[in-house]
Amino acid sequence: EKVKYFIKDALENWGIKYVMLVGGRHGGVGAEKWWCPVRYSNLDDGSDEAQFLTDLYFSDIYRYENGNATFDDWDSNGNGIFAEWKMMKKDNLDMYPDVYVGRLACRNSYEVKKMVEKIITYETTAKGQDWFNRFVGIAGDTYPDDGDPYYEGELATEAAFNYLDGFQADYVWASNGKLSNEGDIISAIDQGCAFLHFSGHGNPMSWATHPPHNGSVWIGIDVTKFPKLSNDGMYPVCIVGGCHNSQFNVSVLNLLKFKNLKTIYYHSTWSPESWGWWMTRKIGGGSIATIANTGYGYGEPGADCLEFRGRYMELQFFKSYSEGKDMLGETHASGLAYYMDKFPPMDDNVDCKIVQQWELLGDPSLKIGGY
Fold first, then answer.
1. What is the CA radius of gyration of the chain?
2. What is the per-residue pLDDT across 230-254, written as a single tens digit (0 to 9) for each?
3. CATH hierarchy code of domain 121-361
4. Which of 11, 188, 285, 344 has the least C-beta neighbours within 10 A?
């Protein structure tokens, strides 16, 4: 909470707009250790995760009561449990960003150095480059069913591209034969692009989807393949629909929690680093920033797949960019606001979770496309 109070002070006295949190996890077994503090939401939606990471806590400084702004500590019932929502126990939160927050979840000084170099390279070289005119959408049939003609991820990537003027789309889809293995994903990324949109399923180590009407087959990419990415200097902003792709509290040290070893292995929380952060901090390739979920993603199958839940959230980033918001933190925060305008987060705990867990791993002051 000291960090949040410092941000409040800086906002009121220095007029800041952007806050970059630098630091990820650095060990700890019984208790996690962090280079930069984190906040866990205690929203329990009935799934098997009663907590998840949320940096939105650091962005939402004020709540408004009778037109007056007061500090929002995310503990309105005063019981010391932040962002609580479990049955009748519920903290009333504002959740609208007052500053633009992003995180570099670096685990050592070398990662910090390389991320600074990567950001400088992007902002000083991307402008006017041919590769920046590309949009890459990677998807398939997210919820395959023989009687369902809708390929949800493919529809989402197409809808995202429709917000973009002056760009060329490369749809790497299972239905058009361009997505059959991780090599197809690597080849598409290696050509460089402004925006990279995955829409499907995920965990902290991998992202994947299905061919049409075939739920037994998975096509995707995991972190062990990231060393093959070679789009050096042609870094996209990456938007990811799927579960846990930016769950940046993962660690190989979790394998020492022997009592929960089966669950840890199954949920891939033993990954050295999360998929989203690994994509971002990849040297010589990967993304310049990644926006993805720290917890379970939630999607709507079928005809209404773009109108609710996670797919709808994915699209709000592109809507924001289409309106001229090209500073990454503002683009991200505006997308959160658009979602909450349509789905007030205090009315539904899943909508609330979707907003809280939509994490920006990157520099919030980054100018998309460079200077």
1. 19
2. 999 999 999 999 999 999 999 999 9
3. 3.40.50.1460
4. 344
